[in-house]
Structure formats: structure tokens, C-alpha cells
Design brief:
Largest sheet: 2 strands, antiparallel
Shape: elongated
Number of helices: 9
CATH class of the largest domain: Mainly Alpha
Low-confidence stretches: 1-28
DNA-binding region: 57-76
InterPro entries: Homeodomain-like_sf, HTH-type_TetR-like_transc_reg, HTH_TetR
Strand order of the largest sheet: 1-2
Biased composition (Low complexity): 14-25
Radius of gyration: 22 Å
Region (Disordered): 1-28
Number of strands: 2
Protein name: Regulatory protein, tetR family
Mean pLDDT: 82
Number of domains: 2
């Protein structure tokens, strides 16, 4: 990988007037290698949101970013490397969603017992869901990249699959922390390992999100999340 401390060695000038029709203006902005990589990852994600992973090509990224083809090759040795970093960016976004659950708990009024726990879980799930509903194309892309990364793993590229595994490990950890905090705030204790409760119910929520992306039935999602909140709250007793 190129050192993040390096500065792009090339400043690209605007394309000549006789250049290819429809070509984008070429950027003259000097960025560090790390900044340029972040820019290209975001461009690739935007392209993939509109047209899927198949639309992510070196030429499309260069056009989106307004830079030369050579600069894209300079930053990423292969499309596989780019897709891995796209997946890593989406993992960070999912982590932000789960952190919103904890933030929602912190802002919620405190009430004791199972009813209070149920309310905190409901608030947290709704906070997570708001992220999904605000940008469904991004969430659809998350599934697409995850599936593609798993295919790369089966083809002998373990790094790609590891990114997907990390995505779920982060979610498990942060939802576990959310449930622990909710129990403490309401004076409840879990009747089975909280990690298992988080893992199982995240799997259910994952399925609900995918189903919503298919049929956009928001009422069904609301009912499904309510059932998840009930199931989670039922796994705790007063301390």
C-alpha cells in the first residue's frame, strides 16, 4: 500500500479541448495519498449506489473524481483492493449506526424494570432503523459488497471475507454494549449471555432490513422491530 504520509506526485491539468466527448474536467487539486484514496473510495461508493458493483470501473471512478486513469491505478493496485476498502468504509458506517443506539439510550428518560428495558430497546432499534430508512441504496450496497466479498473469499482472497466478518463482529460488540447499558439503567440482568442475545436478534434485524429493501413495507418493519424488542426484554429479570 502507498504510504499515507506521501503526497500525490502528480498534479493533473485540465483536459485539452480536443479530448474525448463527455469527459469530466480533470482535477488540479493536490491531495495527500490518504486524502486521494478516501476521495476515490467515496466516488466508487457513489457509483456503486447508482449502478451496482459492476458499474465500478477505473474509467468511471476517474470520471467521477475528475482525475486521470493513471491516478486511480496509482492509488489502488486492483479492483479487489478497492472493493475491500469500500467494504471497510461501509463497516465504519454500520458502526456509526449502532453507536446511535447507545446515544439514544443516553438521551432517553430512565425507568426501572422490564417496561423500562423494553422502552430503551425500542428506542435503540428505532434509532438504528432511521439510518437504514434514510439511505436505502447505501444499505443495499452493503449487502451487495458483502456477498461479493464472500465470493472473493471462496475464490482464495481471505482479506475480502475478513472485512465482512469484521462488519458483523463490530455490530455484535456494539449491540452487546447497548444491551448491557440498557440493563444497567433499568436494574435488570440477562438470563443468558448477552452476547448470544445480541447475535441472535441482530440476525433477525438483518433479515428484516433485507426484506424491507425488497418490498418497502414499513408497517411490516415496525411490527417486526416491535417483536424483536419484546423478545429481547423477555430475556431479562429484575436484579
Amino acid at each position: 500500500m502507498i504510504s499515507t504520509m506521501m503526497t500525490d506526485a502528480v498534479t493533473v491539468r485540465s483536459a485539452p479541448s480536443g479530448g474525448p466527448a463527455g469527459s469530466a474536467p480533470v482535477s488540479t487539486t493536490r491531495l495527500t495519498a490518504d486524502e486521494r484514496r478516501r476521495q476515490l473510495i467515496e466516488c466508487a461508493l457513489d457509483i456503486a449506489e447508482r449502478g451496482g458493483i459492476g458499474a465500478v470501473t477505473v474509467r468511471a471512478i476517474a470520471r467521477e473524481a475528475g482525475i486521470s486513469l493513471g491516478m486511480v491505478h496509482y492509488c489502488f493496485a486492483s479492483k479487489e483492493a478497492l472493493l475491500t476498502e469500500m467494504a471497510e468504509r461501509l463497516v465504519l458506517e454500520l458502526s456509526t449506526a449502532s453507536q446511535m443506539m447507545l446515544a439514544a439510550v443516553g438521551d432517553a428518560p430512565q425507568a426501572p424494570g422490564r417496561a423500562g428495558l423494553h422502552e430503551l430497546v425500542r428506542i435503540g432499534l428505532n434509532a438504528m432503523w432511521s439510518i437504514v430508512e434514510a439511505n436505502p441504496n447505501r444499505r443495499l450496497l452493503t449487502y451487495e459488497i458483502a456477498t461479493h466479498a464472500l465470493r472473493l473469499r471462496e475464490a482464495g482472497s481471505p482479506d475480502a471475507g475478513d472485512v465482512v466478518g469484521e462488519q458483523y463482529r463490530i455490530m455484535d460488540r456494539e449491540v452487546t454494549a447497548f444491551l448491557d447499558e440498557s440493563a444497567v439503567r433499568t436494574g435488570m440482568v440477562w438470563t443468558e449471555p448477552v452476547e448470544a442475545i445480541a447475535h441472535r436478534n441482530l440476525s433477525i434485524v438483518d433479515g428484516l432490513v433485507l426484506r424491507w429493501l425488497v418490498d418497502r413495507d414499513t408497517d411490516a418493519i415496525a411490527a417486526g422491530l416491535a417483536e424483536v424488542a419484546n423478545a429481547i426484554a423477555a430475556k431479562a429479570v429484575e436484579s
